[in-house]
């Protein structure tokens, strides 16, 4: 019993050193602007309301979370740019696909690029001209 407990403490310690989420993946999500104007993003999940954030040209808003044990993490957002509006999921089971990079293991990054043409997602922060961005939605 004692040694089991010690083993548990030890493995928790090792785990917290290698990544912050114990048994699930830590995700960092970046919402980057490629629009030469401010826009507003309101990001939410079932548990968290990250509030309204104004994102300037070439700026980004980012946050991190631990994936749910059942994998059913969902973050979605409302966007306003002048008279334009859109709402879409920024992280869910489907978005693991374009975001997941095997070599990163338990600490992953998901990049969103917001442009005048719409919303693009990638596991890599690359320049927009490359083919690495997956188109997700136009402005409404
Ligand atoms: C967030 O910003 C939008 C657009 O400017 C506005 O309509 C909305 O009321 C704001 N929401 C909050 C909670 O401030
Ligand atoms: C993430 O956002 C913080 C502010 O919340 C900022 O200081 C930091 O530079 C951002 N990270 C990157 C990689 O831009
Ligand atoms: C993305 O890459 C650009 C160009 O290298 C860099 O200026 C920017 O800070 C990066 N953004 C994030 C969120 O890492």
TrEMBL record:
InterPro entries: Self-incomp_S1 (IPR010264). It comes from the Eukaryota. It is found in: Secreted. The keyword Cell membrane does not apply. Keywords: Secreted, Self-incompatibility, Signal. One of its GO terms (cellular component) is extracellular region. Transmembrane segments: none annotated. Residues 1-20 form the signal peptide. GO terms for biological process: rejection of self pollen. The keyword Lipid biosynthesis does not apply. Its main location: secreted. Belongs to the plant self-incompatibility (S1) protein family. This is S-protein homolog. It comes from Tagetes erecta.
